[in-house]
Structure formats: C-alpha cells, structure tokens
Amino acid sequence: MRIGIDLGGTKIEGVVMAADSAVLARQRVATPQGDYAATLATLAQLVDDLETSVGAKKMRVGIGHPGALSPATGLLKNSNSICLNGQALQRDIERALQREVRMANDANCLALSEAVDGAAAGAPSVFAVILGTGVGGGIVVNGALLDGANGIAGEWGHNGLPRPRPEWNETPGPACWCGRHGCIETWLSGPALAADHLRSGGASLAGVAIVALAEAGDARAAATMSRFEDRLARSLASVINLLDPQVIVLGGGLSRIDRLYRHVPALWDDSIFSDTIATRLLPALHGDSSGVRGAARLWPAD
To answer: What is the dihedral of CA 189, 192, 197, 199, to 10 degrees?
Structure first.
C-alpha cells in the first residue's frame, strides 16, 4: 500500500492506494492559508489518519505540490501557494514523518496518473494540463515523468500567450503573480476566465455560470467562451509544435467544460506546423482524483 497526497491551494486530499490501484481510504482537509508550519502539521496529521484508517504504519508517501523543487537548493519555487516558496518542504515533511517522501509537481502527478491507467493509458508521450486556480503542465514519456534540467518541465502556464490578438487587447496582458504580464495562466485559469468576462462588460460570475449562459445563448458569455477556447487552442498548439504528444489530457475545474473537446481541436489547426494532426485532447479519466493517484504512483506498487 502507498499513500498519495495532493497538496492544493484550498484543500489537501490523501488516499491509500493498494498494489492493484484500488483506493482503500480517502480523506480531504482544508489547506491552512498562508501558514507553512500549519501546512506541515496538517500533512503529518493526514498521513497519520490515513494509516490509522487501514491499520498500517510507516507507509510509503508521495506528495504532489504546486511549484517545483529547485535542483540547486532543494527549496520549493514557482508555487502559487506563496507560503511554500523558499521552504525546504521535502526535508521538513520527511523530518516530521521520519521517513523518505517522494514529491513531484501536481501537474506531473496528473500526467503520471493519466498515462498509467487514465485517459492516455499506453500513449508514448502525454502532456497533462491543470486548468484550475492556476495553470500547470506535466510531461510523461514512455511511462516516465520528465522533470527537466531545472525541474520545470511542462511549466507552460508562465510562457506568454502565443500570437496575441490586438483586437482582444491581449498585450501586455493581465498582471501575473509571478511578476510578469500576459502569462498563459492569466488567460486560462478559472479566475482568468471570470476576469475576462467581467472586463468585457459581463457580470461577476464563476466559470461554470459563464459556460451555462453561453450554452443558453447569451451573446456576451458566448463571446467570452469563444475567446477562451481560441486562447487555449493557440497555447496548446505551441505545446504540440514543441513536444508533439500523442495525447493532451485536461484536468482541473475547467476540464469539465465539454465544449472544449469539440471546439479547441477545430481551432488549433492554424497554429500547428503540420499537414495532419493526430494529437488527441481528452478529459482526465480520474477527474479530481487523478493528481492524488499520481502522487501515490511516485512509488512502485511492489
């Protein structure tokens, strides 16, 4: 048995996964906001609770987290949960749990889960995307995670939006928490979708409400969704031109928008440098649970 933990900005989810991939126990708790010490304590308590629930101790633990561990310092960087940045998260949680812990970016965990037994099972190359509070990405090639020389492979969310459209006022773009303007994350995250709708004269609405209005024929919401889909198509086209993956898997809250899988592949053709396009765009098979399953898979089943 292995424990997988998905450390999110608002919730922390943990599971106990058996060798056959069955989930034997599951628990979700709120993430302490802006408090690193409390986050560590919550992680340690969650592991203890999961072990108690299955009557086991000192189980192997994998954690998916926002951002990346710096190969140079071992400290966390690039996390939109700001309190984690600059912290020795792996060292500190290993000290708290008194055991080795394996860690990976949360989008990497999504990619691993979906490449092993999810929507992209058996595909030689997979790019997995989180479209949620932030925008992340992970890469799996021949069943193995690609970390990269700097530990940032797949971090497409902090590239600039490709081929900005002046008619949509896409330059310089919204300010990003990373200090730049116009990052893909500022256009394609859940909050970004809501902000774009508001800027265009719409009401202050969550993404799910904007989608519902668009499907009901509301012209302003339909225009917001058309812009979102066009931006997603351009951004994914740049990934295809670089990585040429067999499958792109979408996870996160916005991945539940069914129309994306019809509209985006029809829009990305013009930006992809190929005569034919075989890349498939699919929703994560395991949904919200994919990241935590991938975290458990950071350890082998045997």
So the answer is: -170
Q: Helices 207-215 & 219-243, crossing angle to 10 degrees?
A: 110
> Would you state the structure tokens that stand for residue 239, as one six-digit string?
């990934």
User: What is the residue-wise DSSP string for 91-149?
Assistant: HHHHHHHTS-EEEEEHHHHHHHHHHHHSTTTT-SEEEEEEESSSEEEEEEETTEE---T
Region of residue 88 (left: phi > 0; alpha: psi -120 to 50; beta: else):
beta
Neighbouring-strand partners of residue 141: 125, 144
Q: How far is CA 215 from CA 21, 212, 224, 237, 254, in A?
A: 37, 5, 12, 25, 15
Q: Which pLDDT tens digit goes with each residue over 71-128?
A: 999 999 999 899 999 999 999 999 999 999 999 999 999 999 999 999 999 999 999 9
Phi, psi for 124 (deg, rounded to 5): -65, -30
Q: Phi then psi for 290, rounded to 5 degrees? A: -65, -40
Any idea what the Cα angle at residue 284 is, between residues 217 and 176, rounded to 5°? 70
Cα dihedral across residues 64, 69, 75, 80: positive or negative: negative
- Rounded CA-CA distance 36/40 in Å is 6
Pick from 122, 110, 139, 154: nearest CA to 283: 110
Per the confidence metrics, is the pTM higher than 0.90?
yes
Contact of 214 with 221, CB cutoff 8 Å: yes
Please report where in the chains the tokens 């190359």 appear, as a residue: 125
Q: Is the peptide bond before 164 cis (omega within 30 degrees of 0)?
A: no
60 within 8 A of 298, measured Cβ to Cβ: no
- Of the candidates 70, 138, 75, 129, the one whose C-alpha atom is nearest the C-alpha of residue 109 is 138
Query: Closest Cα to residue 127, out of 219, 276, 250?
Result: 250
- The string of pLDDT tens digits covering residues 243-267 is 999 999 999 999 999 999 999 999 9
Contacts of 77 (CB under 8 A, 6+ apart): 67, 68, 69, 70, 85, 86, 151
